[in-house]
Amino acid sequence: MKTFSTLLSAAVITLSLASCSKESYTFQQSAAYRTSPATRVAAAPAAAATAETPAAELTASVAAPAVTAPATHKAARTYAAHVRATAPVAATKAAVSEVKATKATVKEMRKAVKAAKAAPAAEGKSQTVAAVLCFFLGWLGVHRFYLGYVGMGILELLTLGGFGILTLIDFIRIITGDLKPKDGDYTEKFND
Which residues form a coiled coil (predicted)? Predict the structure, then answer.
């Protein structure tokens, strides 16, 4: 299924890139830009009357010959067309910056949740109690149950503390502070 979706996305990308051409992205002046300002002003009342006039009258009143604009208005028309063409780009840039801000907020929230999960110490777990349990009842794996490692507790219970080897290793790790409760740190340590 993953291979199919990968192939499908590759095909879509290939088709979309194949349909791109320079003519699609270059500015070409339409008839609206080649008309003079006077012609555009004259056509505005005809466009306003669209709702009131029948279709036959509308086509007769709007169909005006295209008159080329003087060369002095060419820069103004080009700039106006550029502004209209770049308006969607500005909206896209705003949307992209909004998405980036949202992603940053989500990332900060995930970090805060992760820090909140890792921060609390194990409730009521003492290093001294763990060491005493390991020393006296280590062959039953009681210290592992106390620290929250149920699977290792069952293993030590069934193997009698790994024939004493796991119990000795656990005792040394508890004393050095290397073996900690599963869900955090000790609330009471030897140093306290």
Answer: none
Q: How far is CA 65 from the centre of its chain?
A: 53
Instruction: Give the phi and the psi of residue 118 in degrees, each rounded to 5.
Output: -80, -25
The answer to whether position 12 is within a domain reads: no
72-122 pLDDT, tens digit per residue, is: 555 556 766 666 666 676 677 778 888 888 999 999 988 888 877 765 554
Cα separations in angstroms, 71 against 25, 33, 39, 74, 137 = 24, 12, 16, 5, 99
In whole angstroms, give the CA distance from residue 146 to residue 170: 13
For the chain, the domain total comes to 1
Token digits of residue 7? 């192939």
| Rounded Cα gap, residues 34 and 15, in angstroms | 34
Angle in degrees, 0-180, between the axes of helices 165-176 and 127-137, rounded to the nearest 10: 160
- HSE-up (13 A, CA, CB side) for residue 52: 6
Task: Give a yes or no: residue 144 inside a domain.
Answer: yes
Q: 39 lies in a domain? A: no
Q: Cite the DSSP H helix spans in 49-176.
A: 55-62, 74-118, 127-137, 142-147, 150-158, 160-163, 165-176
Where in the sequence is the domain holding 133, given as residue range(s)?
121-192
On the question of pLDDT at 8 being above 60, the answer is: yes
- 184 domain residue, yes or no: yes
